[in-house]
Specification:
Length: about 260
């Protein structure tokens, strides 16, 4: 499939999605959202694909929601169109998604990175929620996900001042998993994705679902949820295979069941 705003490549079991609106620093417009949702739906349904990487350009992962597209919208258009609600569908992807961020990840760009399962940052990455400078607020979950990721003090300061965080601060604060030299970012993200792609797909989904539950549930309920999913995996062929392979000192052959 050809997309206007994305480049999609399959690297064996890994889907690599490159945001591709260089003229607007990958600003997220309606067309990009709709193309990205199409890719993620296909990815989730494709038994051969096991991990996805979303990246941008060396200059910008994404410089935000498309300001030119939103500028003239009024309350009724925003409210009745339930603007940005489509991004919730992105977060319903059940397979893992890594954000590989170089350059600017601002506003909706930072929010998209945070909707992914974890962020690998180039040393050039810069994160921010500068909506305050436009007279608005984050609108794609940024106030919530940033507060969860870095705590109230930094989230509040960033939202109120619009300042950016560099990669070092982002790693120190827990926003990103690791920093990688910019030149190696995509290759390292693909290597990490290939590692995940080599795991039992059912266990990958279960791990993603239960870590995400930590943000939606209290501790006791979350621990119970984890335990029940863990119990459930003992009904899978891949649990039998994974444990047998360990005992027999060989590599497992996953069957996706
Ligand atoms: C539309 C954008 C854009 C955006 C950049 N561009 N960001 N277009 N929406 N979010 C366009 C510019 O208009 C310009 O187009 C081209 O991309 C290159 O950008 P420059 O500004 O010339 O580049 P530079 O000087 O290098 O500055 C980079 C930058 C700056 C610091 C990232 O572009 C910037 O501040 N962008 C806006 C960041 C922002 O406020 N994001 C939050 C958006 S709101 P032309 O045609 O002039 O060459 C949001 C939350 C939505 O995301 C929820 C609230 C409603």
């Amino acid at each position: 499939t050809d997309y206007n705003t994305l480049i999609v490549e399959r690297r064996e079991a890994v889907t690599l999605v490159t945001l591709n609106r260089p003229q607007a620093l990958n600003a997220l417009n309606a067309e990009l959202l709709s193309e990205l949702l199409d890719v993620m739906r296909g990815y989730d349904a494709d038994l051969e694909q096991r991990c996805a990487v979303i990246t941008g350009s060396p200059k910008a992962f994404a410089a935000g929601a498309d300001i030119k597209e939103m500028q003239e919208m009024d309350f009724a258009a925003m409210y009745c169109g339930n603007h940005f609600t489509g991004w919730d569908d992105f977060t319903r992807t059940r397979k893992p998604i890594i954000a590989a961020v170089a350059g600017y990840a601002l506003g909706g760009g930072c929010e998209l990175a945070m909707m992914c399962d974890f962020i690998l940052a180039a040393d050039t990455a810069r994160f921010g929620q500068p909506e305050i400078k436009l007279g608005v607020t984050p609108g794609m979950g940024g106030s919530q996900r940033l507060a969860h990721a870095v705590g109230k003090a930094k989230a509040m300061e960033m939202c109120l001042t619009g300042r950016m965080m560099d990669a070092e601060e982002a790693e120190r604060s827990g926003l990103v998993a690791r920093i990688v030299p910019a030149a190696d970012l995509v290759e390292e993200a693909l290597r990490t994705a290939a590692t995940i792609a080599g795991m039992a797909p059912i266990a990958v989904k279960a791990n993603k679902e239960m870590v995400n539950a930590a943000f939606d549930m209290g501790l006791a309920q979350g621990v119970q949820f984890e335990r029940r999913l863990f119990h459930g995996l003992f009904g899978s062929a891949d649990q039998k295979e994974g444990m047998a392979a360990f005992v027999e000192k060989r590599s497992p052959n996953w069957t996706n069941r």
